[in-house]
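fold description:
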Amino acid sequence: GIAKDRYAIGISMDKAVDLQLPFFSAIGEGFRYTLILIRETVIALYTFIAKIFVGQPNFSDVAGPIGIAGIVGNAARMGFTYLLMITAIISINLGVVNLIPFPALDGGRILFVALESIFRRRIPAKFANAVNLVGFSLLIILMIAVTWKDIAKLWQ
């Protein structure tokens, strides 16, 4: 279980029931739940990143491609509703992560464009490329670490 005083990036599968709602109520409820998932993802991501800066990251709270494949497989075995839900959760997580103002992500590009509009001149291409290369390298290192953790989980 998850302690109430901490946030975690990820999901857990539990028994669920299908809720039958009128069409427009279902659309409204879908938007409401999507906003809740976005909010919770932002909070969990902020907490994870903050812990990285104080030297206490908890990599058991994240999953790489191997871990995600296992989660999707479990969801598929549980039924179509679970598979659809996990697909939505993964999409929301990827969207939120991609908007982080970090080089090599779309959020980093948005930050560069914002800075260019504030200072009314283009950021030199060599500088932007160098910053994006460093950001991309750090993302690859993080992905390798998370994938290594996923592989280690398989051996346990």
Summary: The chain has five helices and no strands. The chain has a mean pLDDT of 86. The two ends are 19 Å apart (CA to CA). The longest helix spans residues 23-53.
